[in-house]
């Protein structure tokens, strides 16, 4: 990791500051791992000079560190506590205090680096609020941001922050386009940009045995909204049945797990890719959470692993029912979907179609970085006289 440069020798290279409030300590850490993949892909480009303001963690040498020791320590504690969104859900007063602390530190960071960068890439809408008006801004939006927009005055504050500057709002799924346009379409360009997928998932070879009881995976943070109706709908399929349900993820709410669930705690991407995805019949997500475009679903599709998902806008936006996945809206359709994918021919047909679609439509993290870079250049050109 290098220090943030005071100047860039090659003027054709765009100087980029990426801001995020989550970042993995290593590639085995699940928290904010997509931020690392994105930043690494941006740093691999010859036409970008990338600096990162984020919690501490392993960084490639091509990425400059834009945080002070105090900021890094504060961001690390924020992430360890579950982040601002988690704090707002559990304690509004504490969440508001943390949000003020974040905004004050961002204001100082933006002031410190404003003259060294050409464009600002903010992950999550609230991080753009203190940005200097002369800086063009690209903002990525996830499903949790849509919940943030329900807070009193938040859309008004964001519109004020966007006024008088070049702004591109980039949700990671198309279903968010319409509500974002209705709120901000007159102040910013709205363009959905999907995240990329690590090449390891495309290279995965499944070796599932259809002659033995089926094995199903759920990879999720353990909250009631993320798990949805999993235990109610799943009891008829997994309790006292030869099928196996394996659950992976951190316990973020105290939830009593049924004895027929095999709970493994958090799993690293390498463990899922090398051990669990190859032998599974499919991935299940019955979330009721405000999802953007869940990364684990993209990774499953890239691996050719079929998905059974609840009928959420985010899921329906990603899966073509009966073609690249199966959508369900109740216990009967859920059970029918699971049984359907226990047929070898149907399982492979849907899994292969999902892999082909995601390879063509989403691509790798380098493809994602190219999409973002094209927008950076348009934003910078828009600020020039």
Fold and architecture overview:
The protein has 385 residues and is an alpha/beta fold. It has two domains: 2-196 and 364-383, Rossmann fold (3-Layer(aba) Sandwich), CATH 3.40.50.2000; 199-361, Glycogen Phosphorylase B (Rossmann fold). Helices cover 42% and strands 15% of the residues. It contains 16 helices and 14 strands. The longest helix has 22 residues, at 92-113. The relative contact order is 0.12.
Large-scale geometry: globular
* Number of beta-strand segments: 14
Helical content stands at: 40-55%
Q: Indicate the CATH class of the largest domain.
A: Alpha Beta
**Number of domains in the coordinates?**
2
Q: Specify the CATH architecture of the largest domain.
A: 3-Layer(aba) Sandwich
Using only CA atoms, what is the Rg? Answer: 21 Å
CATH homologous superfamily descriptor of the largest domain: Glycogen Phosphorylase B
Distance between the termini: 35 Å
**Classification by helices and strands:** alpha/beta
Strand order of the biggest β-sheet: 1-4-3-2-5-6-7-8
Low-confidence stretches: 6-10
Describe the main β-sheet briefly: 8 strands, parallel
Order of helices and strands: EEHEEHHHEEHHEHEHEHHEEHEHEHEHHH
Q: Which secondary structure elements does this structure contain, and how are they paired or packed?
A:
Elements (H helix, E strand, L loop, with lengths): L1 E2 L10 E6 L13 H11 L4 E6 L9 E3 L3 H12 L2 H8 L1 H22 L5 E5 L13 E5 L1 H6 L5 H9 L4 E5 L5 H8 L4 E2 L8 H5 L11 E5 L4 H4 L2 H9 L5 E5 L12 E3 L5 H8 L5 E4 L9 H8 L4 E4 L2 H6 L7 E3 L2 H10 L3 H18 L3 H19 L2
Parallel strand pairs: 1-4, 2-3, 2-5, 3-4, 5-6, 6-7, 7-8, 9-10, 9-12, 10-11, 12-13, 13-14
